[in-house]
Design a protein that fits this description.
The chain is mostly helical. It has helices at 2-7, 31-44, 49-59, 69-102, 105-141. It contains five helices and no strands.
Length: 145
């Protein structure tokens, strides 16, 4: 009998795996999360929870978002400036109406001429800001493919 065991190599059990899964990760779920996980697992039709989790982790595309504080700050300031620019446009319309209502035609035209000069400067400044914003967007915000 001893001779028979020696002929088989003397070892029993399973054949060892080529690439065994030796790394273990543990996570905890709340009741609600666990119920959702079990629901997803049951609808998947898989028979092994570990394989189901692995398929979720590695077969789906995971998107990562990198938030640049400087970009967010620039966007917030640009948005604030845009709202100020819009309010200046509303004020411009109100000033024109008031000029024609409270002054003579000649005096209103003189004030409108001054206002027109300021508006031209304001428009030039706006164009510069738009160019700077587009340049910033091209350099820092465009997605690289």
């Amino acid at each position: 009998m001893k001779e028979k065991n020696n002929a088989n190599g003397g070892k029993g059990g399973r054949n060892p795996k080529i690439d065994p899964s030796i790394h273990r990760h543990v996570f905890r779920l709340t009741e609600k999360e666990n119920a959702e996980f079990l629901s997803l697992y049951e609808t998947s039709g898989m028979h092994n929870k570990a394989k189901f989790i692995i398929s979720l982790l590695f077969e789906r595309e995971v998107k990562t978002v990198k938030i640049d504080k400087g970009t967010v700050d620039f966007y917030m300031r640009l948005t604030s400036f845009h709202s100020q620019f819009r309010s200046a446009g509303v004020n411009y319309n109100q000033v024109v109406k008031l000029l024609y209502r409270h002054f003579s035609e000649k005096k209103a035209a003189a004030y409108l001429y001054k206002l027109e000069k300021q508006t031209a400067e304001f428009a030039a400044l706006c164009r510069k800001i738009i160019l700077i914003a587009q340049e910033f967007e091209d350099k820092h915000l465009k997605k690289e493919h």
